[in-house]
Amino acid sequence: MMDVIPAGQVLGATVTGIDLSQPLAPQNLAELVEALGTHGVLRFPGQTVSPADLRDFSSHFGGLQRTVSNANEPGIPEVSILSNIVENGKPIGIVDAGQDWHTDMSYNAVVGFVNVLYAIKIPRRNGRALGSTCFANMHAAYDDLPDEIKQGLAGMTATHDFNKFWENMRSQPGSKRPPLTPEQRAKRPPSVHPVFLTHPITGRKVLYCNPGYAIRINELGEQESERMLQILFDHQLQAKYQITHEWTEGDVLMWDHIGTLHNAMPDYEPHEHRLIKRCQVMADKVFDPEFVRAVRDQARR
Protein backbone atom coordinates (compact mmCIF):
# COMPACT_ATOMS: atom_id res chain seq x y z
CA MET A 1 0.00 0.00 0.00
CA MET A 2 1.31 3.44 -0.90
CA ASP A 3 2.03 5.73 2.03
CA VAL A 4 2.85 9.45 1.99
CA ILE A 5 5.01 10.35 5.01
CA PRO A 6 5.38 14.11 5.64
CA ALA A 7 8.92 15.32 6.27
CA GLY A 8 7.78 17.62 9.07
CA GLN A 9 9.43 20.60 7.36
CA VAL A 10 8.19 23.52 5.29
CA LEU A 11 8.17 21.21 2.24
CA GLY A 12 8.58 17.55 1.45
CA ALA A 13 7.27 14.02 1.96
CA THR A 14 8.56 10.51 1.35
CA VAL A 15 6.36 8.11 -0.62
CA THR A 16 6.74 4.39 0.13
CA GLY A 17 4.93 1.23 -0.93
CA ILE A 18 4.91 1.97 -4.65
CA ASP A 19 7.02 0.65 -7.53
CA LEU A 20 7.27 3.30 -10.23
CA SER A 21 8.29 0.72 -12.83
CA GLN A 22 4.73 -0.65 -12.65
CA PRO A 23 1.54 0.93 -14.05
CA LEU A 24 0.14 3.67 -11.82
CA ALA A 25 -3.26 2.94 -10.31
CA PRO A 26 -5.87 5.73 -10.58
CA GLN A 27 -6.17 5.89 -6.78
CA ASN A 28 -2.41 6.37 -6.43
CA LEU A 29 -2.41 9.07 -9.10
CA ALA A 30 -5.10 10.93 -7.18
CA GLU A 31 -3.18 10.66 -3.92
CA LEU A 32 0.05 11.85 -5.54
CA VAL A 33 -1.58 14.90 -7.13
CA GLU A 34 -3.05 15.87 -3.76
CA ALA A 35 0.33 15.24 -2.09
CA LEU A 36 2.07 17.51 -4.59
CA GLY A 37 -0.23 20.35 -3.64
CA THR A 38 0.20 19.69 0.08
CA HIS A 39 3.93 18.89 0.29
CA GLY A 40 5.43 20.32 -2.91
CA VAL A 41 8.35 17.87 -3.08
CA LEU A 42 7.92 14.06 -3.07
CA ARG A 43 10.75 11.52 -2.68
CA PHE A 44 10.34 7.92 -3.82
CA PRO A 45 13.40 6.08 -2.42
CA GLY A 46 14.88 2.80 -3.64
CA GLN A 47 13.42 2.84 -7.15
CA THR A 48 14.72 1.00 -10.22
CA VAL A 49 13.16 2.48 -13.34
CA SER A 50 14.03 2.44 -17.01
CA PRO A 51 13.85 5.60 -19.14
CA ALA A 52 10.56 4.31 -20.56
CA ASP A 53 9.22 3.74 -17.02
CA LEU A 54 10.17 7.30 -16.09
CA ARG A 55 8.38 8.64 -19.16
CA ASP A 56 5.26 6.55 -18.58
CA PHE A 57 4.97 7.51 -14.91
CA SER A 58 5.50 11.21 -15.62
CA SER A 59 2.97 11.29 -18.45
CA HIS A 60 0.10 10.70 -16.01
CA PHE A 61 0.53 14.28 -14.76
CA GLY A 62 0.55 16.16 -18.07
CA GLY A 63 2.22 16.49 -21.43
CA LEU A 64 5.99 15.97 -21.48
CA GLN A 65 8.47 18.42 -22.88
CA ARG A 66 10.24 16.96 -25.90
CA THR A 67 13.59 18.16 -27.16
CA VAL A 68 15.94 16.79 -29.79
CA SER A 69 19.57 16.80 -28.67
CA ASN A 70 22.38 14.51 -27.57
CA ALA A 71 21.34 15.27 -23.99
CA ASN A 72 18.25 13.07 -24.30
CA GLU A 73 17.76 9.35 -23.90
CA PRO A 74 18.21 7.74 -27.33
CA GLY A 75 14.80 7.06 -28.82
CA ILE A 76 12.98 8.66 -25.87
CA PRO A 77 13.12 12.45 -26.38
CA GLU A 78 10.92 13.04 -23.32
CA VAL A 79 13.76 11.90 -21.02
CA SER A 80 16.68 14.29 -20.56
CA ILE A 81 20.11 13.28 -19.26
CA LEU A 82 21.60 15.52 -16.57
CA SER A 83 25.25 14.66 -16.17
CA ASN A 84 28.81 15.97 -16.09
CA ILE A 85 30.18 12.68 -17.49
CA VAL A 86 32.23 12.85 -20.70
CA GLU A 87 32.61 9.75 -22.88
CA ASN A 88 34.88 9.60 -25.92
CA GLY A 89 35.45 13.33 -25.59
CA LYS A 90 31.72 14.18 -25.68
CA PRO A 91 29.40 15.05 -22.79
CA ILE A 92 26.58 12.52 -22.42
CA GLY A 93 24.20 15.07 -20.90
CA ILE A 94 23.80 18.62 -19.68
CA VAL A 95 24.96 19.90 -16.28
CA ASP A 96 22.01 21.29 -14.31
CA ALA A 97 23.86 22.66 -11.26
CA GLY A 98 24.73 26.30 -10.70
CA GLN A 99 21.55 27.70 -12.26
CA ASP A 100 20.45 29.80 -9.26
CA TRP A 101 16.85 29.96 -7.99
CA HIS A 102 14.07 29.49 -10.53
CA THR A 103 11.01 27.47 -11.47
CA ASP A 104 11.18 25.60 -14.75
CA MET A 105 9.30 26.87 -17.78
CA SER A 106 7.69 29.92 -16.20
CA TYR A 107 8.84 31.62 -19.43
CA ASN A 108 6.32 29.47 -21.38
CA ALA A 109 2.72 30.40 -22.06
CA VAL A 110 1.94 26.89 -20.74
CA VAL A 111 4.12 26.70 -17.64
CA GLY A 112 5.73 23.67 -16.05
CA PHE A 113 3.80 21.55 -13.54
CA VAL A 114 6.29 18.99 -12.22
CA ASN A 115 9.80 17.68 -12.67
CA VAL A 116 10.47 13.97 -12.18
CA LEU A 117 14.16 13.08 -11.66
CA TYR A 118 15.76 9.65 -11.21
CA ALA A 119 19.19 9.48 -9.54
CA ILE A 120 21.53 6.87 -11.03
CA LYS A 121 24.97 8.14 -9.95
CA ILE A 122 25.59 10.68 -7.18
CA PRO A 123 29.04 12.15 -6.44
CA ARG A 124 30.37 11.95 -2.89
CA ARG A 125 33.30 13.51 -1.07
CA ASN A 126 34.40 12.40 2.38
CA GLY A 127 31.20 10.38 2.63
CA ARG A 128 28.93 13.34 1.88
CA ALA A 129 26.66 13.45 -1.16
CA LEU A 130 27.24 16.41 -3.48
CA GLY A 131 24.92 18.16 -5.92
CA SER A 132 22.00 18.62 -3.54
CA THR A 133 18.84 20.39 -4.71
CA CYS A 134 17.30 23.16 -2.61
CA PHE A 135 13.61 24.10 -2.64
CA ALA A 136 11.57 27.06 -1.39
CA ASN A 137 7.85 27.06 -0.52
CA MET A 138 5.86 29.68 -2.45
CA HIS A 139 2.58 29.00 -0.61
CA ALA A 140 4.30 30.03 2.64
CA ALA A 141 6.08 32.94 0.97
CA TYR A 142 2.77 34.37 -0.23
CA ASP A 143 1.06 33.83 3.11
CA ASP A 144 3.76 35.80 4.93
CA LEU A 145 3.79 38.82 2.61
CA PRO A 146 2.68 42.06 4.26
CA ASP A 147 -0.96 42.89 3.54
CA GLU A 148 0.00 46.12 1.78
CA ILE A 149 2.06 44.17 -0.77
CA LYS A 150 -0.67 41.56 -1.26
CA GLN A 151 -3.23 44.30 -1.83
CA GLY A 152 -0.93 46.50 -3.88
CA LEU A 153 0.10 43.75 -6.30
CA ALA A 154 -3.28 41.97 -6.47
CA GLY A 155 -4.22 41.41 -10.11
CA MET A 156 -0.80 42.45 -11.43
CA THR A 157 1.28 40.40 -13.83
CA ALA A 158 4.97 39.72 -14.39
CA THR A 159 6.85 39.09 -17.61
CA HIS A 160 9.09 36.00 -17.60
CA ASP A 161 11.94 35.79 -20.12
CA PHE A 162 14.17 32.78 -20.88
CA ASN A 163 16.94 35.14 -22.01
CA LYS A 164 17.41 36.41 -18.43
CA PHE A 165 18.16 32.89 -17.26
CA TRP A 166 20.44 32.22 -20.23
CA GLU A 167 22.45 35.39 -19.65
CA ASN A 168 22.80 34.53 -15.95
CA MET A 169 24.21 31.15 -16.98
CA ARG A 170 26.58 32.79 -19.46
CA SER A 171 27.95 34.97 -16.67
CA GLN A 172 29.00 31.96 -14.57
CA PRO A 173 32.78 31.40 -14.31
CA GLY A 174 34.02 29.12 -17.08
CA SER A 175 30.80 29.29 -19.10
CA LYS A 176 31.24 28.91 -22.86
CA ARG A 177 27.62 29.56 -23.74
CA PRO A 178 27.13 32.00 -26.64
CA PRO A 179 24.32 34.57 -26.58
CA LEU A 180 20.99 33.37 -27.85
CA THR A 181 20.50 34.07 -31.54
CA PRO A 182 17.45 36.04 -32.67
CA GLU A 183 16.03 32.76 -33.97
CA GLN A 184 16.52 31.05 -30.60
CA ARG A 185 14.93 33.95 -28.75
CA ALA A 186 11.97 33.86 -31.14
CA LYS A 187 11.38 30.20 -30.26
CA ARG A 188 11.13 31.12 -26.56
CA PRO A 189 9.42 34.51 -26.43
CA PRO A 190 8.63 36.11 -23.06
CA SER A 191 5.35 35.19 -21.39
CA VAL A 192 3.12 36.91 -18.85
CA HIS A 193 1.67 35.36 -15.68
CA PRO A 194 -0.01 36.65 -12.50
CA VAL A 195 2.40 37.68 -9.76
CA PHE A 196 0.06 35.87 -7.36
CA LEU A 197 -1.17 32.68 -8.98
CA THR A 198 -4.00 30.54 -7.63
CA HIS A 199 -2.62 27.04 -7.23
CA PRO A 200 -4.89 24.64 -9.15
CA ILE A 201 -4.62 21.85 -6.56
CA THR A 202 -4.74 23.72 -3.24
CA GLY A 203 -6.86 26.67 -4.37
CA ARG A 204 -4.50 28.92 -2.39
CA LYS A 205 -2.36 31.79 -3.65
CA VAL A 206 1.33 31.29 -4.40
CA LEU A 207 4.03 33.84 -5.16
CA TYR A 208 4.70 33.03 -8.82
CA CYS A 209 7.52 35.42 -9.59
CA ASN A 210 10.98 33.84 -9.56
CA PRO A 211 14.43 35.45 -9.83
CA GLY A 212 15.49 33.14 -12.65
CA TYR A 213 13.02 34.42 -15.25
CA ALA A 214 10.88 37.34 -13.99
CA ILE A 215 12.03 40.63 -15.49
CA ARG A 216 9.18 43.13 -15.02
CA ILE A 217 5.97 43.74 -13.12
CA ASN A 218 4.00 45.09 -16.03
CA GLU A 219 1.59 47.41 -14.23
CA LEU A 220 4.40 49.33 -12.46
CA GLY A 221 6.90 51.85 -13.75
CA GLU A 222 10.37 50.53 -14.49
CA GLN A 223 12.04 51.74 -11.30
CA GLU A 224 9.16 50.67 -9.05
CA SER A 225 9.06 47.30 -10.79
CA GLU A 226 12.78 46.77 -10.12
CA ARG A 227 12.32 47.75 -6.48
CA MET A 228 9.34 45.49 -5.95
CA LEU A 229 10.91 42.51 -7.74
CA GLN A 230 13.91 42.73 -5.44
CA ILE A 231 11.61 42.84 -2.40
CA LEU A 232 9.79 39.74 -3.63
CA PHE A 233 13.01 37.87 -4.46
CA ASP A 234 14.56 38.65 -1.08
CA HIS A 235 11.36 37.64 0.70
CA GLN A 236 10.81 34.30 -1.06
CA LEU A 237 14.38 33.10 -0.49
CA GLN A 238 14.39 33.40 3.29
CA ALA A 239 15.83 30.32 4.96
CA LYS A 240 12.55 29.58 6.76
CA TYR A 241 10.93 28.67 3.43
CA GLN A 242 13.73 26.33 2.30
CA ILE A 243 14.64 22.65 2.46
CA THR A 244 17.60 20.80 0.93
CA HIS A 245 17.36 17.35 -0.66
CA GLU A 246 20.55 15.29 -0.45
CA TRP A 247 20.44 12.75 -3.25
CA THR A 248 20.84 8.98 -2.95
CA GLU A 249 21.08 6.54 -5.85
CA GLY A 250 17.63 5.11 -6.56
CA ASP A 251 15.80 8.28 -5.53
CA VAL A 252 12.99 9.46 -7.75
CA LEU A 253 12.26 13.06 -6.80
CA MET A 254 9.16 14.83 -8.01
CA TRP A 255 8.32 18.46 -7.33
CA ASP A 256 5.61 20.98 -8.09
CA HIS A 257 6.88 23.96 -10.08
CA ILE A 258 3.80 26.07 -9.36
CA GLY A 259 4.25 26.07 -5.59
CA THR A 260 8.05 25.89 -5.28
CA LEU A 261 11.35 27.32 -6.48
CA HIS A 262 14.49 25.20 -6.76
CA ASN A 263 18.25 25.57 -7.03
CA ALA A 264 20.79 22.83 -7.88
CA MET A 265 24.04 23.16 -5.94
CA PRO A 266 27.25 23.22 -8.06
CA ASP A 267 29.57 21.83 -5.37
CA TYR A 268 31.11 18.93 -7.32
CA GLU A 269 34.07 18.83 -9.71
CA PRO A 270 34.22 17.45 -13.28
CA HIS A 271 35.82 14.21 -12.05
CA GLU A 272 33.04 13.71 -9.45
CA HIS A 273 30.46 12.10 -11.68
CA ARG A 274 26.73 12.69 -11.46
CA LEU A 275 24.02 11.05 -13.59
CA ILE A 276 20.32 11.82 -13.31
CA LYS A 277 17.51 11.30 -15.81
CA ARG A 278 14.59 13.72 -15.97
CA CYS A 279 11.11 14.31 -17.35
CA GLN A 280 9.58 17.78 -17.42
CA VAL A 281 5.79 17.82 -17.22
CA MET A 282 3.76 20.73 -18.56
CA ALA A 283 0.80 22.27 -16.73
CA ASP A 284 -1.56 21.42 -19.57
CA LYS A 285 -3.79 19.18 -17.44
CA VAL A 286 -3.61 20.50 -13.90
CA PHE A 287 -5.29 23.85 -14.68
CA ASP A 288 -8.24 21.98 -16.20
CA PRO A 289 -10.95 21.90 -13.49
CA GLU A 290 -12.21 18.58 -14.85
CA PHE A 291 -8.80 16.94 -14.31
CA VAL A 292 -8.56 18.20 -10.73
CA ARG A 293 -12.19 17.29 -10.01
CA ALA A 294 -11.67 13.77 -11.33
CA VAL A 295 -8.54 13.40 -9.19
CA ARG A 296 -10.35 14.54 -6.07
CA ASP A 297 -13.31 12.27 -6.75
CA GLN A 298 -10.91 9.34 -7.10
CA ALA A 299 -9.09 10.29 -3.89
CA ARG A 300 -12.36 10.15 -1.92
CA ARG A 301 -13.16 6.57 -2.98
From TrEMBL:
Asked if the record carries the keyword Metal-binding, the reply is yes
**GO MF, one annotated term:** dioxygenase activity
Task: Could you list this entry's UniProt keywords, alphabetically sorted.
Answer: Dioxygenase, Iron, Metal-binding, Oxidoreductase
Instruction: Tell me the domain of life.
Output: Bacteria
The TauD/TfdA-like domain is annotated at 7-279
Q: Which InterPro entries match?
A: AtsK-like, TauD-like_sf, TauD/TfdA-like
Q: Where is this region: Disordered?
A: 169-192
- Is this entry keyworded Phosphoprotein? no
Q: Which Pfam families did the record assign?
A: TauD
Q: Which family does it belong to?
A: Belongs to the TfdA dioxygenase family.
| UniProt protein name | TauD/TfdA dioxygenase family protein
- Record organism: Candidimonas humi
